Amino acid sequence: MNENLIKKYNTPVPRYTSYPPANYFEDTFSADDYLAAVKHSNNWQPEQVSIYFHIPFCKKMCHYCGCNSCRISDVQSVKRYFNTLKTELRMVSGHIDKNRKVSQIHFGGGTPNSVPPGYLAELMNLVKENFSLSHSPEIAVECNPAYLDAPYTKKLIKAGFNRFSLGIQDFNIHVLNKVNRDQPLIPVTDLVSYIRSENPQARVNLDFIYGLPGQTKKGFEDTINRAIEIKPDRLVTFSYAHVPWVNKAQKILEKQGLPDNDEKAAMYRVAHEQMTTNGYKAIGLDHFVLEQDELYKALESGRLHRNFQGYCTRETTGQVYAFGVSGISQLQRAYAQNSKSIDEYTDSVARGLLPVKKGYALNNAEIIIREVITTLMCNKQINWPGLSKQLGISVPEILNAVSYNQDLLRQFKEDGIVDYSADSIKVTREGSLFIRNVAALFDPLMATTNNKFSRSF
Ligand SMILES: C[S@@+](CC[C@H](N)C(=O)[O-])C[C@H]1O[C@@H](n2cnc3c(N)ncnc32)[C@H](O)[C@@H]1O
Ligand code: SF4
Q1: Counting ligands in written order, which one lies closest to the CA of residue 108?
Q2: Rg for the chain, CA atoms, rounded
Q3: Which pLDDT value is given to residue 305?
């Protein structure tokens, strides 16, 4: 890995989980704007839609956390929060076309398994009452294994959950201690075996982070090798996003000593090598899946997409309707984000108002740019004629919307980051680490931004 390239391109750039990125959302976007976008979304393909629930609670706060999460204060506030979620669901579901089938339901956080499983099961029942589900919807839950035992897991499986994302981060207990995180309640191998024995159709993801204090190349290699032995369906290795202006607790990690760029690059490289030589296929930069996984099939056939919940197939992307504090709905022509404050969120809903705090209405050019950036981030390449066919507009119309800096593209080529021809742009193997920088080439907002982003790597 070329150190000079890391120095040159390790700059602050958006993660492009959305376009425009969430820090461009505007306060002027109202609940009425959201409802109008929901009604408009009923007419868009693909037919199937997704639902997201944000459960912000955690039992203990990890110092690296970049998610919208908080420590559980008391039982009553959890109860109130779940009642509010149910009310919000009823308020919005009436505006969504009942003929559209829900193919993906995602409970994220925070830590959904920090609350009694009955709360999650009740929400699932309400979804079933208010929507029609596709014949085999993916019902996913993000779990912290520090609070996950067999009886709890069994209840989730009974409630219909069939994808478990377990946040491992690192198997090394010294690393977990340094970031204020508890180790798994039962060995992860046993937990995964148990999930599979209870429901052979259930799928398991294991999440890891590289770039935390106490991590070394050798240590992370051991962690990834242990993960490979467990053979989860998907392995996700996140680059630690250091954003202390969002989460002040991350400052503590600076004192603990964060690994430098070279160490971080070595961890990524060794993890990548171990996973790809042991049967896993790379999806984007940070997901690794078994060959039979639907994401790999989608990558092969150019149907790979992504939303805030991660990579998905084009069929399941649909429109995402989000519920709960800080939840972001992702619709054809708009994003809408709920209030990040639990009090503000519950007060709004109690007053019969949708808790939308901000959002973004995309114009036609931005919808095209979003497609270009998503295609690049997912498939590491853009084929202009192919995209033109997919979007039903001409290549010059696409190029007009993304009008990018040709000199910069040439520079990427000279640095070995991309190859391009008149019809396509491809990110090279070495360039994969800097895919966010390449995506930023098509983002006109980057030219004028004052927003802060984590570094590209
Ligand atoms: C909401 S959390 C997962 C669920 C559960 N709360 C847990 O900690 O296991 C989603 C994932 O985001 C990742 N994550 C959290 N903070 C991060 C950060 N600052 N940089 C990179 N990844 C991060 C972690 O891998 C984590 O498992
Ligand atoms: S990483 Fe998970 S458990 Fe830790 S604070 Fe963040 S959301 Fe909570």
Answers
A1: 1
A2: 21
A3: 84
In angstroms, the CA 23 to CA 21 distance is 6
Query: Does pTM surpass 0.70?
Result: yes
66 lines ligand 1 (CB under 6 A): yes
Looking at the DSSP assignment, which residues form a beta bridge with residue 334? 361
**Which residues of the chain register pLDDT less than 50?**
none
Q: Which residues pair with 336 in a beta bridge?
A: 329, 359
Q: Give me 325's structure tokens.
A: 């504090």
Does ligand 1 come within 6 angstroms of the Cβ of 107? no
Which domains can be identified in the chain, with CATH numbers? Answer: 22-361 (3.20.20.70), 364-447 (1.10.10.920)
Q: What is the DSSP letter of 303?
A: -
- Ligand 2 centre from 248 Cα, in Å? 14
Q: What residue has token string 């994401």?
A: 295
Outline where DSSP puts E strands in 264-380.
Answer: 280-283, 287-290, 304-307, 310-313, 320-323, 328-330, 334-338, 356-361
Contact yes or no for 334/64 (Cβ under 8 A): no
Structure tokens at 59: 């039992």
Q: What is the pLDDT of residue 5?
A: 80
CB contact at 8 A, 304 and 379: yes
Give 250-276 as a DSSP string: HHHHHHH----HHHHHHHHHHHHHHHH
* Angle, CA 296 vertex, CA 437 and CA 292 arms, to 5°: 155
6-45 tens-digit pLDDT? 778 877 788 888 899 988 999 999 999 999 999 999 988 7
Which residue, judged by its Cα, is nearest atom 4 of ligand 2?
Answer: 62
- What residues pair up with 306 in beta bridges, in sequence order? 311
The rounded distance, in Å, linking the Cα atoms of 43 and 333 is 11
CA of 143 to the centre of ligand 1 (A): 10
